[in-house]
Amino acid sequence: MALLGHGQAGPALSPILFCKVSMAAVYKVGDSAGWTTIGNVDYKNWAATKTFHVGDLILFAYNPQFHNVMQVTHADYKACNATTPIATHTTGNDTISITARGHHFFLCGVPGHCQTGQKVDINVPRTLLVQAPSGSPSSLSTTTTTVPAPSPSSTAPLYALMGLLGKLGLSMVVFAAFVSGFA
């Protein structure tokens, strides 16, 4: 595909070639409670009821006067050590994109908050290799770990948001294609 200079018209649908549709899920940590120490939110249980994938967005919604979000190592997560974070987020409305499989550890760095349970392990399952039964054509087979999906009541607004964002993106592509036809 040739690049066109200023004033040259290209195919009307060329912007579509540059768009990638993503069906990432958006998970609000703690659901309606958000990221807090109030209400005894069980973040371990919250995460265990979700199936996370690479590309998903993790939303931490909280009052930035009282909380923050720190991504930490496994050792720091276990010890509630906030002195050497990988990343620190402080806006009160932080969205973190999951870019790799494995465990992603987050905690609140305000003294005492992690110790009271304000920490979460976002686990994106890796594909596991297991030994196949003897006599099978392959000595290895692949199996994937499954975790129960979120309840429909907690995910309905998120899927509605994804649908809205998808429609917005498609509308932008159509508009760009329309405008590029007049350039």
From TrEMBL:
Keywords: Glycoprotein, Membrane, Metal-binding, Transmembrane, Transmembrane helix. Gene3D superfamilies: Cupredoxins - blue copper proteins (2.60.40.420). Residues 25-126 form the Phytocyanin domain. The keyword Oxidoreductase does not apply. InterPro entries: Cupredoxin, Phytocyanin-like, Phytocyanin_dom. One of its GO terms (molecular function) is metal ion binding. The chain crosses the membrane at residues 158-179. Residues 132-151 are annotated as: Disordered. GO terms for cellular component: plasma membrane. PROSITE patterns: PHYTOCYANIN (PS51485). This is Phytocyanin domain-containing protein. It comes from Camellia sinensis.
